C-alpha cells in the first residue's frame, strides 16, 4: 500500500515537472517581452549602424557629392552658393573640387572660376569682397577673360554692394540676366561664357527676404549643376 502511494506521488511530481518545462519553453519562445525587446533593440542597432555606414560612405566620396556624367564633348559642373556668412561656396568641375573651403580659395563676396572650355583646364580661381573690398580687381579679371572660356560664379555673404554698372555690364556680356537685379545679401550662382550670344540658362538667384529667409538675415543656399559644352572654334 505504501509502495503504491509512493509510486503515485512520484508519477504526479514527474507530470508536474513536464508541464512546467513545457510552459516555460512556450513562454520563452512566444511570450517573453524581454526577448522581443532585445530583438527589436538588435534590429534597431543594426539599422542605425547601416545608416551610419552609408553616411560615412557618402562623406568619404568628397565635397562633390552630386556627381554628374556628361557627354564626351561637355564638362560637368556643380556650384553651391555660400550659406549666410558661415559656410563657404564650392565649385566642382568634372566631379572635382576646384574652389571651396577645403582648398582655402573661397571668400566672401563673388567667387569666380575661369575654365578653358576647349580643354577643361581651370585657368584661374578668385574671390572678390563686394562689401568692404574694391570692385576694380573683379573688373580687371572680367576684361581679361579670353574667348573660349567658361566663367562660373557663386555668391557668399554679400555680393552686391560694390558691384557697379561696369562690372554688371561685363557679367551680363557673359550671359547673365540676373546680375542687374542682384541685391544686398542675395544668393546667386551663374555659369556663362565669353561673348555669349544668348542669355545663359545656368543661373539662379534667391532674394534676401527677411520674411522667408532660412538664416534670418540671409536666404537659404542654392545650387546649380549641368554640362558645359566644349568650345568649338
TrEMBL record:
It comes from the Eukaryota. One of its GO terms (cellular component) is extracellular region. Keywords: Disulfide bond, Lectin, Secreted, Signal. PROSITE patterns: GG_LECTIN. It is found in: Secreted. Signal peptide: none annotated. This is Protein FAM3C-like isoform X2.
